[in-house]
Design a protein that fits this description.
The structure holds 2 protein chains of 2 kinds.
Chain A: H1 2-19, H2 23-42, E1 49-51, E2 56-58, H3 60-83, H4 91-109, H5 114-132, H6 139-170, H7 175-184, H8 190-206, H9 214-221, H10 224-249, H11 255-277, H12 282-298, H13 308-332, H14 347-350, H15 352-366, H16 372-387, H17 390-416, H18 429-447, H19 450-453
Antiparallel strand pairs in A: 1-2
Helix pairs in contact in A: 1-2, 1-4, 2-3, 2-4, 3-4, 3-10, 3-13, 3-18, 4-5, 4-10, 5-6, 5-10, 6-8, 6-9, 8-10, 9-10, 9-12, 10-12, 10-13, 11-12, 11-17, 12-17, 13-15, 13-16, 13-18, 15-17, 15-18, 16-17, 16-18
Chain B: H1 4-48, E1 55-60, E2 65-69, H2 73-92, H3 101-120, H4 124-133, H5 135-145, H6 150-182, H7 187-192, H8 197-214, H9 224-230, H10 233-258, H11 260-265, H12 267-287, H13 291-311, H14 315-346, H15 357-360, H16 362-375, H17 382-397, H18 399-424, H19 438-456, H20 459-476
Antiparallel strand pairs in B: 1-2
Helix pairs in contact in B: 1-2, 1-3, 2-3, 2-10, 2-14, 2-19, 2-20, 3-4, 3-5, 3-10, 4-6, 5-6, 6-8, 6-9, 8-10, 9-10, 9-13, 10-13, 10-14, 10-20, 12-13, 12-18, 13-14, 13-17, 13-18, 14-16, 14-17, 14-19, 14-20, 16-18, 16-19, 17-18, 17-19
The chains are: A mainly alpha, B mainly alpha.
Chain lengths: ~450, ~475
């Protein structure tokens, strides 16, 4: 609970820093603050349990995911300073919005009441709408923000409608009450309709097929750092929230519900990967790759019993690979009108180190061993196979093979083509640090997967 | 000291090579490679003295995964093959100049690391990781330092990568399935589980996909010829000399003992596919105009025979397979090295543009001829012993298999001698063939010495691998 308060306080602090003329210090102070909050979050002082009349419900699950979100946010904020260099006057806004976004994210995994959950999702989404449209002189950024806002608010409406139905069925927003009611007494049939609406709204936020149409356009139009935030942080937040909802609010998984999840997962993996093959824009490609990864993560809903660790591991692996990827993409696409793969031509010769980092994170996403992405897929498929969905495993394997095709497009461009003009090798120091740190975490997770995997065992 | 030391040595060597800089990279790489040979020989001595050098610690507690390395005659033979051939291949590349050679040699050593790991692993998960890791360096070696048109090369190499990755992912699914049956992935536990025939069939099929692509067995061979042709010769030697042995070794070590029932039931089909590969490879080789491609197809024919022997499930078949794996490793490195020597001087791989080399360099011609004759299994060479044992095991299954597969020797003689005639004999062309250097001849001398020595006296290798193979044969026939 205190974690959420501290994060919100930090957000206000970084807004205030503007007034006190502390623009230069804002990024370091926020990072230090977040590190302190991270330390508090994982320390024994952070009490588990319920707070404020069950509004918040903090357990190991929410602590673990909160820590992951904080780490990802630290990386994203570290990239901010360099990325917003030209707009230095606005840096405090950007940083503050990201911190508030984190507050929304924390609320989304530690809610004890559906109103708190909705509050969290709105804080997160509105921050993202603003960030998507934040490059206000750029037409594409405006379009992205508008599109995301329209579609996103529609999805929020659907979620709200679902929550209303749940309230009508159980007479409560409180998760404890709802849990007891759904597990003991009879409840009206529209409870399930409410659940379906809620799940549909969340599937939209995660960007799974058939609710994925916004993702490529919004990812492409938004400023690159916002794309990074959406694709790494927002996606894993929504996935964790959906997991928590499913585990608490769905009393028994009917076969038809499982079938829906299976179909959505299969469709996401296949559509995401096949569409990604055809993309020439790195951000769009990453959007489709994210859709396919969402399909992978969705599989944990079929194995709710002991898959929190699997989801945590998968989300971590996906996020650190994404961070390393974007640290390089931010540098390469800086000042460019579009983000075609051609920009990477000859990158292997001009920037051997960053090229190696990018290669490794792409290999991780493709699921090549020793990198954490492989273990994530291994743990996941292991559990799915145990639950008996062999078809799903086969589809996952086939889509992994397809995914190699487009991940390697970038690798091929870096190592086999020559760049037309010589790129000067002036990588901002902070980009290098973030990229390498993310890669180190990636490899570390691969060498010692138990560290994360057993946290929620 | 146990066997994990060799892995650490090679991994450390990878970094050392990279840090040594372009100038010293190859010397450092060769040094570490030779050190790993020394280590392997030490392990061999320990093994012969009856000391078990296996290594095992728990890596991931949940799910239950070990870092387990197993030393027995079979894995030792492969370990020695890998380390010795890597050293030879590294030494053979001294005549070339690669740009960014520190990365190049580091990748070669890293590949050697991954392949040694594959051969030693006794935990399926670890094995799978090494198996996949070996793919990364060869991908970059072939892609960046390869020859031929860049776009064509890219297509060939990506095809190779996706093919092999696709196959091995199905193997991973099979391992996950087995893991849920056995509760661990240690090879002993996997041997111990009893699967129904239907389960065995699917497991066997998933393994087959991975291994058939790697070996390659007809009809999964389409990546091979182009990849061999486009890779730099070091890559081709690594691929054909060692890497495809990973597939054959895995058939013996993992596929057959885990799914013996399926192996027995469908034996004819798999032998048939392998034998088709033998005939097909030989016939296509007859038509080739490109030297490296011809050698690639001849390699396809030879490994087809090895696979057929392994799938015959008899002790003789497995023994012949292992002997021939070693023999083929040396011969194919020798042949591709000869092609490389010619390419260094003539800048071409087309057979039609060669000729008259014997007149200019007698020594090279005779060494090439010995290696070439070894590859067509002339008696008194190591390959003769291998192929003879293999054909004998096929004969015990069905005489027709032996007869058809036996054509490989005849056809092999035809295309090899034809190739030799066009490449080495004939009128002198206007191109000048500079005599081969001492460095180059040292590689040949070593290869020829190995081939002739074990051709006349195969007992040491035979003694080494027999206990391990007998163990595996009893596991196959355990029912």
């Amino acid at each position: 609970m205190n974690t959420l308060i501290a994060i919100s306080g930090l957000g206000i602090l970084s807004l205030l820093a503007e007034i006190f003329n502390g623009r230069k210090a804002i990024v370091p102070i926020t990072i230090i603050g977040l590190l302190a909050i991270l330390g508090y979050n994982i320390s024994p002082y952070n009490h588990l349990g319920t707070f404020y009349n069950n509004m918040m419900f903090v357990d190991k699950f929410s602590v673990a995911f909160t820590s992951l979100f904080i780490v990802v946010t630290i990386f994203l904020i570290a990239l901010s300073h360099e990325f917003y260099k030209e707009q230095a006057t606005k840096i405090s806004d950007y940083v503050a919005i990201k911190v508030f976004l984190l507050a929304g994210a924390v609320a989304m995994v530690s809610f004890g009441n559906l109103s708190m959950f909705f509050l969290g999702i709105e804080v997160l989404s509105i921050s993202l709408y603003v960030l998507a449209a934040s490059n206000r002189l750029n037409l594409r950024s405006n379009e992205a923000g508008m599109k995301y806002f329209l579609m996103g608010s529609f999805a929020s409406g659907i979620i709200l409608f679902g929550i209303c139905l749940l309230y009508g069925a159980t007479g409560s927003f409180d998760l404890m009450n709802m849990y007891q009611i759904t597990h003991s007494v009879n409840y009206p049939q529209w409870y399930y309709i409410g659940i379906i609406f809620l799940v549909i709204g969340m599937l939209f936020k995660i960007a799974t097929v058939p609710f994925h149409f916004w993702a490529p356009d919004v990812y492409e139009g938004s400023p690159a750092l916002t794309t990074a935030t959406m694709s790494t942080l927002a996606k894993i937040v929504a996935m964790a929230a959906l997991y928590k909802i499913s585990i608490l609010l769905i009393p028994t998984q009917t076969y038809s519900f499982q079938m829906i999840i299976v179909c959505v997962a299969i469709a996401s993996m296949i559509v995401g990967n096949i569409m990604a093959l055809r993309q020439n824009n790195v951000k769009r490609m990453f959007a489709f790759s994210g859709i396919s990864h969402a399909g992978f993560m969705l599989m944990v809903l079929l194995i709710l019993n002991n898959s929190a660790g699997v989801l945590l591991y998968y989300a971590t692996a996906y996020a650190v690979a994404g961070i390393a990827f974007f640290a390089v993409v931010l540098y390469v696409t800086k000042g460019k009108d579009n983000e075609t793969i051609d920009l990477f031509n000859g990158f292997g010769k001009t920037h051997p180190l960053l090229a190696a980092v990018l290669t490794a994170s792409l290999l991780s996403m493709a699921g090549i061993p020793i990198l954490s992405g492989f273990f994530a897929k291994f743990f996941l498929l292991n559990q799915v196979l145990l639950s008996g969905w062999t078809v799903l495993v086969i589809v996952a394997i086939i889509s992994s093979i397809i995914s190699v095709g487009y991940y390697f497009k970038i690798i091929l461009a870096m190592y086999t083509k020559d760049s037309e003009k010589d790129l000067p090798n002036n990588i901002p120091f902070i980009y290098q640090v973030v990229a390498i740190l993310a890669l180190v975490i990636n490899i570390g997770l691969g060498l010692y997967p138990s560290i994360v995997y057993n946290l929620l065992g | 000291m146990n066997v994990s030391f060799i892995l650490i040595l090679l991994l450390f060597g990878t970094f050392a090579t990279y840090l040594a800089g372009d100038k010293f990279a190859k010397t450092v790489a060769l040094f570490f490679s030779l050190a790993s040979v020394a280590g392997s020989i030490f392990i061999l001595n320990q093994h012969n003295a009856g000391i078990d050098e296996s290594f095992m610690i728990n890596w991931i507690s949940n799910p239950n995964i070990y870092i387990a390395l197993k030393v027995d005659g079979l894995s030792l033979a492969m370990l020695l093959l890998t380390t010795v051939l890597t050293s030879l291949i590294l030494f053979s590349s001294f005549g070339n100049n690669y740009n960014n050679s520190k990365s190049f040699y580091a990748l070669v050593l890293f590949m050697s690391f991954a392949m040694v790991g594959t051969f030693l692993s006794a935990d399926a998960f670890l094995y799978y990781i090494f198996w996949e890791l070996a793919l990364i360096p060869i991908y970059f070696i072939a892609l960046i330092w390869g020859n031929g048109d860049a776009d064509e090369r890219k297509r060939a190499i990506v095809k190779f990568f996706i093919y092999t990755l696709a196959g091995s992912l199905f193997m991973l699914v099979a391992f996950i399935y087995l893991f849920q049956k056995a509760g661990s992935l240690l090879i002993g536990d996997l041997y111990a589980i009893r699967l129904t025939e239907n389960e065995q069939f699917w497991i066997f099929a998933a393994f087959f996909l991975a291994y058939a692509i790697k070996i390659p067995i007809f009809p999964f061979h389409t990546w091979q010829a182009n990849t061999y042709q486009m890779s730099p010769s070091v890559g081709t030697m690594l691929l054909s000399g060692i890497m495809l042995k990973m597939g054959l070794y895995s058939v013996i070590r993992w596929q057959l003992p885990i799914a013996p029932l399926a192996a027995k039931t469908y034996m004819d089909i798999f032998i048939l596919l392998s034998v088709i590969g033998v005939v097909y490879g030989s016939i296509v080789a007859l038509k080739q105009r490109n030297l490296k491609k011809l050698l690639a197809y001849s390699s396809l024919a030879h490994v087809g025979l090895i696979a057929a022997g392994a799938y015959s499930l008899s002790f003789d078949g497995l023994r012949g397979a292992v002997l021939q794996m070693i023999a083929h490793g040396f011969v194919v490195v020798g042949l591709f090295f000869a092609a490389e020597i010619i390419e260094r001087r003539f800048q071409t791989q087309e057979i039609s543009e060669m000729g008259g080399i014997r007149i200019q360099d007698n020594k090279f011609a005779s060494m090439f001829m010995i290696v070439m004759l070894a590859s067509v299994a002339l008696p008194s060479t190591f390959n003769f012993i291998g192929e003879f044992t293999l054909l004998y095991s096929l004969y015990n299954v069905n005489i027709w298999f032996a007869v058809i597969a036996g054509t490989t020797i005849i056809l092999g003689a035809v295309y090899m001698l034809k190739m030799f005639q066009h490449v080495m004999l004939g009128e002198q062309t206007d191109k000048v063939f500079k005599g081969i250097t001492i460095q180059e001849s040292v590689v040949f001398v070593i290869i020829i010495a190995v081939l002739l020595f074990f051709g006349l006296y195969p007992k040491p290798i035979n003694d080494l691998i027999t206990p391990a193979l007998q163990d595996i044969v009893t596991k196959i026939n355990k029912l």
